[in-house]
Amino acid sequence: MELNKGTRKRRGNSRYYLFFFFALIGVAIIGSGIWFGLTNIDLFKFQKMQISGNKVIPDTLFYKITSPYIGMNLFTVPSSEIKAKLNTLSRVKNVKLHKRLPDTIKLDITERKAAIYLKTIEGDLYPVDSEGVVLIIYTPVYKEDIPIYSTYLSNNQIKPGIKLKYSGLQKVLQLHQRVVKEAPDFLPQISEYYLIDNTINIIDAKTGTRIIPSEEDFATQISRYRFVQENGNINRNSVVDLRFKNQVVVKAGNK
Description:
- The protein is α/β, with parallel strands linked by helices.
- Among the domains are: 43-111, Ubiquitin-like (UB roll) (Roll); 113-183, no CATH class.
- It is built from 5 helices and 11 strands.
- The protein has helices at residues 2-38, 59-66, 79-86, 167-182, 218-230, and strands at residues 48-52, 92-100, 104-111, 114-119, 125-129, 148-150, 190-196, 199-204, 210-212, 234-241, 249-254.
- The strands form 2 sheets. It has an 8-stranded mixed β-sheet with strand order 5-4-6-7-8-9-10-11, covered by helices on one side. A 3-stranded mixed β-sheet has the order 1-3-2, with helices on one face.
- Strand 2 and strand 3 (104-111) form a beta hairpin.
- It starts with a helix and ends with a strand.
- The mean pLDDT is 87.
């Protein structure tokens, strides 16, 4: 009698396993049917696009890249493929793609912001971001009001999207970031950076004064320079050395 009870119990468990097996198959069939319906219904065809975050890159460029996918079912549009194509644009730093039912894709663009213009020996200007990445210019007009850094690089060494690792450029970019963080109000006053004996010089756009920046307390030294300049104690086109603590040293054109 005990053996028969145990046998009946095992048979009962087998029925439960069989039930769960067929239930899982049913769920899979239903899920596949729903997915098939969603990916084939005309209501969810990609027809519209919304773009945000782009200030320099024209909308038309995004429409051109996504146009081959117009009319595809929104669920089958390859997000990773579109993002990969957009990331080939030198001005794109990051892109987020959102699908919004029934027919819209939204692009959130983070652009690379130009820090300086790099000037080649041919005299052409190329915008470069804070990491040294060369950015493309979409119009013949230079709309970004940023400092210039003159180099001995030629045009054939510059290509949008590449990251330049020249020591001089990296040194200038590091100083530029210091200005951005420590004295952002002085940034519009800088017209040019250049190197003399591996020392960075800044050209004051207002006065033409050549400034040798300090290694420390940049904001404080710039404030001292401005005070002295505004009080008429520096001749135009002078050389001002701010590397000496608590001092504004005028090397030429001193009144």
